[in-house]
Amino acid sequence: VTMYEAPGNSGSGTIFNTTNPPMDDVRVRKALAHAMKADELIAVVAGAGATKPRTAYYAPESPWYSKKASDAYPKYDLAKAKKLYEEYAKDPSRSDGKPAGSPVSFEFACTAIPSLQAQAQAYQEMWKQVGFEVTLKPVEQSVHIQNAIEGKFQAICWRQGSDADPYTHLSTAHGDPAKNPGNFTNFAPPEFTTLLEELRSTDDFDARFAALEKLQVIL
């Protein structure tokens, strides 16, 4: 028996429920992303065994890896995060229904594993520097999964990614939420319907890669 070990396409991160205010506003999601220092978050959990942050949906070892998508990933930029935060916070028609200028608050849930709670505290501190008021909610694993399935969350820690064919995985993870309970984020912009159909309907690698690259850049 010869055993091979590889990192695969699974990764840890944060997902947002894009139908739950304030996560339904792209300015908030981008502000949160630009406030994250991925290296520090990984080090909290992995310590000396920390690996490089993933900046694409697929790992560099994957044939589906896209440098264009990787380069498009939000980089740490506290000034940009604060600007986006202020745009939302001062918007009279902000989606959370709170008065313009009041702090933007939300709940971040993660399993009660000590290392992940330490990481949650690191997230909280990074987002606090932008102006967000973040309440941490430690939960038991089965409850965590059930909350994701039922959409009872705003932001949660989550393991995502797959070594399956891109269509097999992404049609569930980002297909029509009404038909795909596995789309926990409820993120399914109109362009995804066309791009997923291109992935489904051809076995031509170049055509599939082009469609997948566009989809990754949007993600």
Model description:
With 219 residues, the protein is an alpha/beta fold. Helix 2 runs antiparallel to helix 5 and helix 8 runs antiparallel to helix 9. The protein contains 9 helices and 4 strands. It is 43% helix and 12% strand. It has a 4-stranded mixed β-sheet. The chain is globular. Strand 2, helix 5 and strand 3 form a beta-alpha-beta unit.
What's the structural blueprint in terms of helices and strands?
Blueprint (H helix, E strand, L loop, with lengths): L10 E6 L9 H9 L3 H9 L20 H6 L5 H12 L15 E7 L2 H15 L4 E7 L1 H10 L4 E6 L5 H8 L16 H12 L3 H14 L1
Parallel strand pairs: 2-3, 2-4
Antiparallel strand pairs: 1-4
Helix pairs in contact: 1-4, 2-5, 8-9
| Strand order, largest beta sheet | 1-4-2-3
Distance between the termini: 39 Å
- The whole-number mean of residue pLDDT values reads 94
**Element-level helix/strand string:** EHHHHEHEHEHHH
Assembly state (oligomeric): single chain
Radius of gyration: 18 Å
- Enumerate how many helices there are, as a single number: 9
Number of strands: 4
Percent helix, as a range, is 40-55%
User: Roughly what fraction of the amino acids lie in strands?
Assistant: 5-15%
Low-confidence stretches: none
Shape: globular
Biggest sheet descriptor? 4 strands, mixed
Helix and strand content put the structural class at alpha/beta
